[in-house]
Amino acid sequence: MLNDKQIKEIADSLLPTFIPKNDAETELTFNFTVPPNHTYKVWYEKRQTAWSFVKFEKVQIQK
To answer: Which domain of life does the UniProt lineage start with (predicted)?
Structure first.
């Protein structure tokens, strides 16, 4: 299992892929999976011109 800092670092590295094309958007969420089976949902908020990490939660995937 990853620690909070690692989850944020991974999410920050993936963030550019998910930034909305609409500049008026101020919130975004996305999921990512770390092998073998750890999935996380992350939230960001746009503060002025920069996206800031807000929180995350571990997602339970049903088999």
So the answer is: Bacteria
Distance CA 6, CA 22 (A): 29
- DSSP for 1-63 reads ---HHHHHHHHHHHHHHH--S-TT--EEEEEEEETTTEEEEEEEEEETTEEEEEEEEEEPPP-
- Could you give the CA distance from residue 57 to residue 63 in angstroms, rounded to a whole number? 19
Q: CB count, 10 Å around CB of 23? A: 9
Rounded CA-CA distance 27/46 in Å is: 6
